[in-house]
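Recap quiz, item 2
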Amino acid sequence: MALASDMPKAGFRPSMLLYDTRYRSLTIQVVVLMLFMAGVAWLVDNTVRNLAALGKDFNYGFLWQRSGYDISQRLIEYSSDSTHGRAMLVGLLNTFLVSAIGCVVATVIGVIAGVLRLSKSWIVARLMTLYVEVFRNIPLLMWILLFYAVVTEAMPPPNAFRGDDAASSMILFDSVAITNRYTAVPDLLFSRSLGSLELGYVSLNINLVLLIAAVVGGVLANRALLRRATRIQEATGARPTTWWQSLALLFGPTLGVLAGLGFHLGYPELKGFNFVGGINVSNSLMTLAAALAIYTGAFIAEFVRAGILSVSQGQTEAAYALGLRPGRTMSLVILPQALRVIIPPMISTYLNITKNSSLAIAVGYLDLRGTLGGITLNQTGRELEAMLLMMLIYLAISLAISAVMNVYNASVKLKER
Amino acid sequence: MNTRPGAGQPYVRDQMLAEKAPPILAAGPLKWARENLFAGPVNSALTVLGVLVVLWGVQAAYPWLRHSVWTASSLGECRAIIAASWGEGASGACWAIINERWTQFIYGFYPSHLYWRPVLALGLLFFALAPLLFGETVRIRMAVLGVVTLLLVAALVQLGTGSGLSDLALLVALVAALWVMWKTPSRMLWFAVLYPFLAFWLMWGGSIWLPLVALAGLGVGWLALRATLGFGGLVAIVAAIVAPLIWWLFVAGHVFAWLDASLPVAIEAVRSDKFGGFVLSLTIGISGIAMSLPLGILLALGRRSDMFLVKTLSVGFIEFIRGVPLIALLFTASLLLNYFLPPGTNFDIILRVVIMVTLFAAAYIAEVVRGGLAALPRGQFEAADALGMDYWQAQRLIVLPQALKISIPGIVSTFIGLFKDTTLVVFVGLLDPLKGITDAVRAAPDWKGVYWEPYLFVGAIFFIFNFSMSRYSMYLERKLKTDHS
């Protein structure tokens, strides 16, 4: 029997490269590759010639030279005698700091606003719609500039807090003072501090490590406890009471470590012209974090709302029909399905916060762009190296977050065959 | 059976009762209030809280707005007027700053006798887009265009184009365009092709031969397509792409120089550093939007391609752009482009920024469109194959119309993001309305210390543009909806 699918045996003709679908994609790819290589070669050649014309070379040696500039807002030891590389690290940590604050606050605001927008209370739902529409349709830069202008122009200077009959007073039980240059907040102090561990380039605060270990240990122990309870429930049908053990496991170790280290707050006090004793958080950090959080909160509110609406009413009814109480319905049926919709855009929003934190340039907060892509770049004149390194770092952060997102998506994906 | 009441019979009503009014709590405003404001303790508490927030907002903003001053020459004068009419210590808005400086917020430092040119360019944009944007009925389209024409004529009369002759010529041209739009709307698609070159010439001015020679590149491409069609489709497409490139890169410069020398026709040129305010924002925003959509679609198709190399390059490009803040890209445009281009090349900063913004938005649009493509059922692709369509036919006729329809909300929110991001150009030295112009205004000694009013003004204009865009996308979604749910 002759099969119709037998290909006619014909010799290879050059025109088949274009008109035979078996070879055409290969041809196109070869052409694309050649064009791409030519483009890259053209760019590299131009760059080399331009650098030669300017008498510059391409090296990152400047990262180990003395920086010569100060950074007031810093999380690690740094002075103007430190290297440009250290300044870059300070900037990177500052980027992380403002992004982290922004992410946490934006999530809180966004979840509350998103849930309230679905509230049955007409006026609250309208207010939240107003919030979302206003903040989503106006550039982030305006909010940063406006907040910064309000704080720097409308807040009192530190010496307005002086005297018994001061023009301004501190808020939150005399613990926080908002001035036109910084916000003085209480410091976290340990009277029996264990100091810090020097590990060459970075120093590790032992108190902090202990505290984190206590929190993580408590959470892990609590999970083990709950797993054991579930196992007993599956074996015997009766779930042992665990709430007080959970409480003890979750908070006990942390409180123990805090008490052992002698934790107390150091309240800011006006001495001379400035507040001392607390932490003076610069207004650029405050306003940048606040603007990022409120602006992004509007986007998160929309994701939360969409996520909740995406779970059909039938799911709730089915859960009720099975006899689940409203609380269990929410935690076992609605949330797991809504979170699958909410989390992916939320993670890319966190990524956006990190990238938008580069708007720090508007308020003079020294983040990664301000140090490496700003002062270091201007002082050393190494535009090419500094910009490439900066983009590479942002890219690495972004790819890391994308990787986390992919892992999460794979884990919550509907299991289909 | 006897239903009449009588001895030994149960009572049976044989008349309808008159309708009773519903209980007072189950109808009218009270019912609405009970269901929407006080549906349970939590809701009631929320409502009370909401009312308090509204009252607090009104209480804070109302006196400030009521004490507004519209004419004054400095902030000090504003405060004096407020103190004089509302008593010492009263605070009020000083809109006089907007009244005094609004031309700067709108036009930047564009020469004031040429204000009509950006206005005309913006008005003509509606003519160019009318067949695409307001397409479904002639009535709506003509109504929109009629309103635009009236506004445009009013604005041009107010601003003045410099001479009565050009006023008259413009008026005739506008009426003619309206007439063409009424009679043969398809003709106006040609205007959409022509528009970018016309707008460029209106905004930047200079010799008319520059846009015309650039436009001729399209004609060259078309001629190349017609001439090589006999050699097969692929050859013709390659020729249609390569021929205009050759024209633009190697021929156009000489042709332009020759034409400009032999027959100079020019209007007053405006340099890029004069651009500012919303003229700049709209220039960057509109050109970015127009160019990023096709590029984004191509990138999305590339990302889904079977060809390994095309796919890898698309993914690499998209992920690189999406992983880097726009500010970094803008700094690249202003600092590094000189390294990457042949020595001695130096081109316009607005053009550089437009290119960067376009690439940035295109990567995001590519991801949105990829989502739309992924949402399309596989059967659609297979049906197109079964009909014997080639790749481009299938994409053009089956896949993209459906995928783009799904992606409309995402695409429009990317556009809104792009328009908001045009404010970032201030960091590479351009005068955007939000920071560039506002800082310039606030630096003037007369207006030192004013901050709410300019930011609110600029923010309100951004809000109007972006909010209309998002409403338009909702209208588009409704218009294109084909299912019955």
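The first strand of chain B starts at residue 206 and ends at 207.
The CA atoms of residues 92 and 239 of chain B lie 66 Å apart.
End of item.
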